[in-house]
User: Fold these one by one.
Assistant:
Number 1:
Amino acid sequence: AQSLPPPINDTSSKLINDADHPFMPLRPGDIRGPCPGLNTLASHGYINRTGVTTPGDIITAVQEGFNMGYQFASFLCYSAFITDGNQLTNLMTIGANTTTDGQLATGINTHGNFEGDASLTRDDAYLGNNFNFNKTLFNEFDVAAKEVGNGVITFEAAALNRALRINDSIARNPEFAFETPRFLGGIAETGFFLAMFVNNQTADNTMPLRIEDARSFFDFHRFPDGFYRRQGPYEFPLVKNVTYTLIDMIGRQPGNNNGVNNYVVNPEDPATFCYFYQKQVNLTASLYPNPTPELEAAIKANLVTYYNTMQDPTCEQYFPYGQ
Ligand code: HEM
Ligand code: MG
């Protein structure tokens, strides 16, 4: 198992779409997936342009390219890696599974492991393709921006857009699943684009996102020309703050559809990041019921790394394979 890379030192704003990191179109076999942040980093060479990579490379790249905070980046990456990546080789992809040089690299497209429903620009797996851009869904940004944002994606418009996308899944997907971790993840992702996709951000990081810049990331996987990353890291405390503020504004709780237009809240779901971690650990244990000794040792080490990314002693630690 890999250990975490060191944090980046300089977290000031700087030019990211630079001469060393030009956008390049996809070549045959290059993999992209449901995350516009990772797709864009790959298309500019901040992570391997093939889309096949490792947790360490992703953690460094999301700090470098977007100023996602080191600790939160490590948490987020391991949340996906332990369920979607290859625990033995550390290979993971930002989309579909693939084999390179005989090594299996598994990816974040897998529905229900980390990828989930009510995405902003990708269909629910039940309704269609869960990783390709869908223009009809993207148009909901326009709707929300016109309604409450004077044509740009303000915090209020982003919250409205998040709510509209949830309402749409409730109305059309009989199997809509929106418990933690997807509940927190899906709402946190609205915070991500507000915090990290805005170009030439002000010092207080509160500028709205323009629709054409949103399109550049979500659809074309491309940094806008002259893109400067945000000022200072988007780190765990801030992520939590924004996510719970959005939850209050949206007024939804974790739950599932029991048939279309029948959203049933799960009162047992506490919607905390400790519970998010617990659910990912349980899922990992269910994916590998009988690992070989070598695989088991790797998973155990990765689960310890994952727990440590939270740096929260109030979260209980879980050892499904023993200590
Ligand atoms: C969505 C993984 C970093 C922005 C997703 C999804 C995955 C994912 C699996 C799909 C969830 C779904 O909609 O069903 C990761 C991992 C990261 C990472 C493993 C590693 C740290 C980032 C960064 C940004 C970002 C740095 C922004 C700068 C987004 C946004 C979405 C998303 C806005 C929502 C897309 C949509 O709903 O259409 N991410 N991501 N992510 N990610 Fe990432
Ligand atoms: Mg999705």
Number 2:
Amino acid sequence: SPSCPDGRKRRVCYYYDPGISNVDYGEGHSMVPRRVAMAHSLVASYGLLNDMTRLRTRPASPEELLAFHDQKYVDLLGRLTPAAYMSDGNLRRTAEEHGIGPMRRLDGACTNDNPVIDGLMGYCLSYAGGSLAAARALCGGDHDVAINWSGGMHHACRGHANGFCYVNDIVLAIKQLLGRFRRVLYVDIDGHHGDGVEKAFADSNQVMTLSFHQYESQFFPGTGSIDDVGEGAGRYHALNVPLKKGMDDQGYHELFKPIVGKAMQVFQPDAVVLQCGADSLSGDRLAGLELSVGGHAECVRYLRGFNAPLLLLGGGGYTINHVASCWCYETAVAVGKEDEIAHEIPHHPYDHYYRSQGYRLQYRTEAPGSRSSGENKDAAVIRVKALE
Ligand code: V1P
Ligand code: CA
Ligand code: ZN
């Protein structure tokens, strides 16, 4: 069979909308959507597009967002342009009630996590449409792995933008998968807690959510403690692995593999969604975890090995050359060609971004000076017990 259960080959499909290169959160904002264009350009320059089916899909419709988001919020997103926001006081108030637009800290400084950006609705419909198309491709059974690096916006709530995320493509994709598959495992390796996805399915026993994240005072979003395990019918179907900064490949995988392995064994999901936020990489501008690209990609390789339909999504990641290197390397892992791609980054339109890494992918580089703490090992024991 083309999926070769025990072999290296997988039938992979891939979503990319070049419109992402024009999406701009504003000067000084940490979120740089162009990193997805950089990843795509790198994927193309390595020839990996020949190993995948390109999903040529329309953007989502506003109606499709209603599978999770509420009507008022979707209407707001449809009306919200920078010009309308500036000229219409009512719209400005409504936007701010829904988490969009300036937020003031006590000192008066403006953090503006979720700015009113040009082409906001088009951006949301594009990345949500990509995740929905990827989910549909898995439902159709013709693909084993589906990729949308522009998705993975795990903080968005039903009626509220949060943490750079306006619509929650992950929740939409999981709901799509539930039309065909009975149980879906969601794994989140972004450096932040996958709070929006966890909350959406907190009382469901059809979806198990499992987030690994940095968990320290003042670290966004502040949720995802080890005691947060879901509620009602979904009790013990939400799992959290809080980590201290400095966690490296070895410490991470001493947790990741037993916990994910146990979740696979106990929950027996029919499909898996992996949010591959790349801010868990060493040297990220926002987070303090210290995974190498190889360590991050090991999560993809490990989950791919279970041969369940696998949806790979992007997420955070704020040192953009690292992000693009990571998602390109993970694309290679998905198609089974990670050993065939050259260390040297090929000449391509974005190659100047890779100067600081010597124009090499550097996926084998171990994070320097990192350690894992005993506290995190205890977390594994407790968590695996919770699964018994
Ligand atoms: O800390 C906060 C908010 C602002 N206070 C009201 C609390 N926001 C964080 C948001 C991080 C979002 C991460 C998203 C993801 O998980 C998925 C895409 O990766 C924040 C931070 C920070 N250092 O945590 N916002 C910003 N920095 C920021 C920086 C520059 C411009 C605007 C926002
Ligand atoms: Ca996470
Ligand atoms: Zn993040």
